[in-house]
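Sorry, explain these tokens?

***
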Amino acid sequence: MIEKRVSLKLALMSFVAAVLVVCIHAPSTPVHGMTQLFESFLGTHLAASAVPFFFIASGFFLGRHTDEQGWYVTALRKRVKTLLIPYLIWCVILCVTRNMNSFVANVIHHQPLMRYIDLSPVYMFGLNPNMNPPQPLWYLRALIFFVAISPVFVFVARRKIAFMLSAIALFVCGCCHGHIMAIFPGELFLFTLAPLNFLCFLLGIFLGRNPHLIEERMSGGGGIVMAMAIALTLLNAICKHVPYELGSVVSSFLHQVAVLLTIVGAWMICPAIELPNVFRAQSFPVYLLHGVFVVVILILKNVMPAFVESAAGYVFSVVFMVACSIAANHLLRRFLPRLSKVIFGGR
């Protein structure tokens, strides 16, 4: 069993991470100055740690059971319900809603009605590995793949030297991510097979197998760690002006360190408290449902671009998507509980 303190912190950080994903997808403002700096910090730096945290958390929950007999078969069966079925359902839902947005935009801007409309199964279900499924489902597709090859992660995580060498190798590959993208252009290596994703999932499995590392040792000093992460992020902004050959490697190095330090610092700072009932078990529904409500914001952007692209519009977009996702989830749980369990994987 996971210690209650750890469980509470995971629940709180998961909800915050889901909100940060919403911040990524909220339409940003082209305005420069403090407004853009605020949105960049919230929607880029802090939010960049959200999905890596989800990979760590997913690996952690899997790693807890890897010494049990038949753990792999059990994990596959469980993930069919919690990952694969929700993924397929939400591929259809989000593909339809995104195409609705394209259709409305075509009507408003007097474009051909079928422009940018794509209902092909290849796009809908992410069957082209080099093209993402409808956002934000690339994470689910990547997680399904990682679970499928999880015996490799577990084999490495069981051996500390192998784990350390693999972690270092993945980190170095992450530093060369820009060069990898130059060789393999497209979304496969940009998202699904990004070295940082492998590193975080491996780290999660290692921590799941060694929970004392977070249950006993990772406490105190979170403010200092977060300050270091912010400093590295600012330094990264400067290093982006370095000539490309060097700047790409340095920028990726600073980005990875900043992301990992942000997660560690947030864990140290995060209180072990229960979420209010209204926010409990909402991270996965918010992660998925905001993909529907972002279409409302995008349609509104076609009608009121000045407001949506303002600082107030950005805050409104985030609050609107989070609030509507929570409300929709509560309504589904109350009036369609069986459907809710299926589309959210029993969460």
